[in-house]
Amino acid sequence: MAKKIIAFLLAASFIFSGFSLTGEVSDVRRNIEGYIETAVRALKSVFDIRNYSDYTELCEIPEVENGYVPQGYCFSEAYNIHFISYYHDDAATVISLIDGENGEKIKTLPLRKTNGKDFTGHAGGIAEDGQYLYIVDGKKIYRISLALVFMTPDGGPLFLLDKVNTDVKCSYLNSDGTYIYAGEFYTFTSDGSYDTDKSHHMAISLFETSYARCNAYKISEFDFTPDSEIIPVPSMIFTTPNCVQGFARLPDGTFALSISYGRNNNSSLAYYEDVTLDECDFTVDYSGVAVPAYHLKNSTKIKSFRQPPLLEGIDDMNGKVSGIFESCAQKYSDAAFIVEKICVF
Predict the structure, then answer these.
(1) Is 33 helix (H, G, I), strand (E, B) or coil?
(2) 45 burial via Cβ count (<10 Å: 0-12, 13-18, 19+)
(3) What angle do CA 167, 169, 117 make, to 5 degrees?
C-alpha cells in the first residue's frame, strides 16, 4: 500500500509539473518528493537494522574529546598519512594528521584567515594530491602547500592564503591526482537550509530526480590566488543523489559515495560505475564552453552497503574506501550507533 501511495504522489507531481530531462524540477514535485523522503527517513530511524559488518576499524580519531566534529577525510598513499578536517562550535577549524603506520596523531593545526583571525568554517571536505592540501568551505576551495603543513609544529596555525571559487555549495572534496571533485549536499527541509541552486535540479526519469552536483576540476588548470573571484570552468559535472557527505574516485574509475543524514538513520556506501566511459548525458554551458555532465543514478549503481549513521568523508586507500563517522563527536553522543575510529570498507 505504501508503495502505491508513493507512486500515486509522484505521478501527481509529474502531472502538475510536466517532465523534462534538462529543465528545472518544479517546486510542486520537489516538495512532494521531499515530504515523502522525510516521512520515510522518520520511519527508518525507528526500524533501521543496527547490524553492520562491512567495515574494519583502523585507528582512533583524535580531537573529538576536545569538542571537535570530524567532517572531511583523505588518505595520502605517498606519505601514509590520514588527514581529517574538523569544525568546532566555539573554536577555530582544525586539521589533524594521523600516522597510517601506527595510528598515532602526528599533529593538529588550527586554520587562520589572511587577516590572522580564526577560520571557523565548516570544512566539510579535505583532499591532497601529493603536493597540496585542499580544504573546502561553502563555495570556496582553499589550497595549502603540503611542505608547509609538514613544517608547521603541532598547534601552529595554517593560513588560508590561496583560494578558488566554485558555483557549487561544496560539502565534500576528493582528488585522484588529476581532478579535484567538489560537490554539494542536498536534502529537503521546510526552511530550505540545505537547498541548492535550482539550475542544479534535474528530472532523470519519472521516479528519479537529482538536486545536487559534483564538479570535477582539472588540477593543472586551477588558478589559486588570494583575491581571485573568477569561477573556473569544470572539466566534468556529475549529478548526485540526496544526502551525499563524501565522494571518492577509485583507481578503476568507479565512484564511491557516502550517503547519510541524521544521528538515528543508517548511512549507505554506494558504488557507481565509471559513467565517463560512455557519452555524456547532457552538457552545461559555461560562457560558450559545453561541459559534459553525467548522471550518478540508480541504473549506474553497482552496489550499496548499509553502514552506521553519520558516515562523512571518504577516500581511496590502496584501492579500498576508507572514511570517518562524525558519530564519535561529543555533539552526537546520543547517536543510535557510534564509530570512534577511521575505518576501511
Answers:
(1) helix
(2) middle
(3) 105
Distance CA 205, CA 272 (A): 18
Query: What region does 285 belong to: left with phi over 0, alpha with psi -120 to 50, or beta?
Result: beta
Query: Given the C-alpha cell 510542486, which residue does it identify?
Result: 28
* Pairing state between β 289-295 and 236-240: parallel
For the segment 203-240, what is each residue's pLDDT rounded down to a tens digit? 898 889 999 999 999 999 887 776 667 788 999 999 99
Give the pLDDT score at 81.
97
pLDDT, tens only, 38-52? 877 777 767 778 888
| Helix residue ranges per DSSP H, the chain | 2-17, 27-47, 146-151
Ordered DSSP codes for 176-200? -SSEEEEEE-----TT-TT---GGG
**Residue type at 329?**
A
- pLDDT, one tens digit per residue, over 269-288 is 999 999 999 999 999 999 89
Identify the residue whose cell numbers are 504522489: 9
Query: SS3 of 155, please?
Result: coil
pTM of the model: 0.91
Termini Cα distance of the chain: 36
Cell of 135: 580544504
